[in-house]
Amino acid sequence: MMSVALAVRAGDPAGFSIPLLAIALPSGTPLPRELAKVDRATGGALSRALKEKDFKGARDETLLAYAKGKGPERVMLIGLGAAVTANGVCRAASIAGRKANAMGVQRAAFWCGASDATTVENAAIGASLGAWEYRDLKTLPPVSERPKPLVSMTIVAAKVDAASRAGLAAGKAIAEGQNVARTLAMMPGNLCTPAHIAATAQDVAKRHGLKCTVRGRKEMTAMGMGSFLAVAQGTPQDPKLIVMEYKGGGSERPICLVGKGLCFDSGGISIKPADRMEWMKFDMSGAAGVVGAMEAIASMKLKINVVGLIGSTTNMPSGTAMNPGDVVKAYNGKTIEIINTDAEGRLVLADVLSYAAREFKPQAMVDAATLTGAIVVALGNTAMGVLGTDQQVVDEILAANKRGGEPGWQMPTWPEYKEQIKSDVADMKNIGSRGGGSITAAMFLAEFIEGAPWAHLDIAGTAYTEADLGSIGRGPTGVPVRTFVEFVRGRAR
Ligand code: BES
Ligand code: MN
Ligand code: ZN
């Protein structure tokens, strides 16, 4: 994977000989005095644009000017909107990264006035997110015609000190984690197989000295993971239970991060309509989030123990596939009547969650899954659903959502909803009635948490964007890497 090199630098950007200087400005303010020299190099174009209101500083607004002299060749103003926030800086830096890529500019700098650790971190994350592109599967044009991607972005800070250096390091780590996740989510199902996710997890583990164990069908059969294996019985590919262990803390209980890793979800015998079925390659975004978060957490060297767990397979119709009406026995001994084979994510997670809870006795357990279409109906593509049995964990997740710029909204897990998943023949069935689909899915998962303090993130609406969001292009968003990282960070020593 190609990623943009990030650095932090201080001083008047008028002295930086660089093809592009991006300047993020809030609305309704004149050009900051520190930029007087840069303004002069553009022949006063920047202050003029502000004065004439050709550039108002509205969010995502941009204005490009050319400069003379030995400093920046081009200067781009980027609007932050009314207030300067960390998330706003991330967004503006992402636009800078995208524009630089589109313009074929290979080196750029980003100025935003503030230079505390959080701001530098968010600028670094944004720049890297914006510059990310998945080009692996496109035939390259001849060298002479190839667009030149952004290679380096320098964050301009007031001082290069411990704070701005720490911000840069954390930003690099988080962005790298997000881009690992985005690459996995972008890859088609014939390339991003359970074995490929396992290999990526092992690569992360090797680079950071984590323990990583991968189990296949044989091992999981011996362990009695009948729920997970029911989903996997329709595919010849070996399913993978992946466990990554990061030890940055002492002897305290770890946090478990759990991800749904369906490399393709056809629906199985309860097959999905053909229209847009290709989107179901993204059904491993929760798993990608776990791998990405482990990458970030390990390179940030957070002082806490974290275990990442992934259940990965594909959901296929075949002669060996599970059928509606089948009853299977989960790892924790509970029996499940399968009403709809397309409610497969919860069947996989059931066994991974109870395995995580029993094996690691976590202080907190958070799973992420592209679990229900119902969450898209409820919250659209803006917020992830946050559900859980432990309000403390849920509250920390909602705070992590805010810090990470990945909005989340809580939904209830009241006992009334559990009525819907009662079965006549087994301990429960795998779907409820039509209404409240995201809640009944979470109620199902709650049957398998074995008392662990738990929250669940339904990211079906937010892991992938079909619309160009301005700050981020069409494709995988990197959600929920930042939520995971912020949650873990909030509990680290
Ligand atoms: N992976 C899907 C959820 C999904 C659906 C994500 C649409 C994004 C868009 C999940 O496995 C699924 O198929 N869920 C079913 C559950 C239903 C059968 C109760 C759904 O939401 O339709
Ligand atoms: Mn499904
Ligand atoms: Zn699915």
Q: What does this 3D model show about the protein?
A:
The protein is an alpha/beta fold and 493 residues long. It has 2 domains: 5-161, Leucine Aminopeptidase, subunit E, domain 1 (3-Layer(aba) Sandwich); 192-492, Zn peptidases (Aminopeptidase, 3-Layer(aba) Sandwich). Helices cover 35% and strands 20% of the residues. It has helices at 36-41, 45-51, 86-103, 117-131, 162-186, 194-208, 217-223, 226-232, 285-300, 345-360, 374-379, 391-404, 437-446, 481-491, and strands spanning 5-10, 20-25, 62-66, 74-79, 107-111, 152-157, 211-215, 240-247, 255-265, 305-315, 327-329, 335-337, 364-369, 384-388, 408-410, 428-429, 454-458, 464-465, 475-476. The chain has an 8-stranded mixed beta sheet with strand order 7-8-10-9-13-17-14-15, sandwiched between helices. Helix 10 (345-360) packs parallel to helix 13 (437-446). The model has no long low-confidence stretch (mean pLDDT 97). It binds ligand BES, manganese (II) ion and zinc ion (ZN). The site of manganese (II) ion has 5 residues, from loops.
CATH class of the largest domain: Alpha Beta
Global morphology: elongated
**Contiguous uncertain segments of 5+ residues:** none
Largest sheet descriptor: 8 strands, mixed
Structural class: alpha/beta
**Which homologous superfamily in CATH is the superfamily of the largest domain?**
Zn peptidases
| Named CATH topology of the largest domain | Aminopeptidase
**Termini distance?**
31 Å
Q: Taking all residues together, what is the mean pLDDT?
A: 97
Strand order of the largest sheet: 7-8-10-9-13-17-14-15
Which range does the strand content fall in?
A: 15-25%
What is the strand tally? 19
Ligands in the model, by name, code or SMILES, are: ligand BES, manganese (II) ion, zinc ion
- How many domain units? 2
* CATH architectural designation of the largest domain: 3-Layer(aba) Sandwich
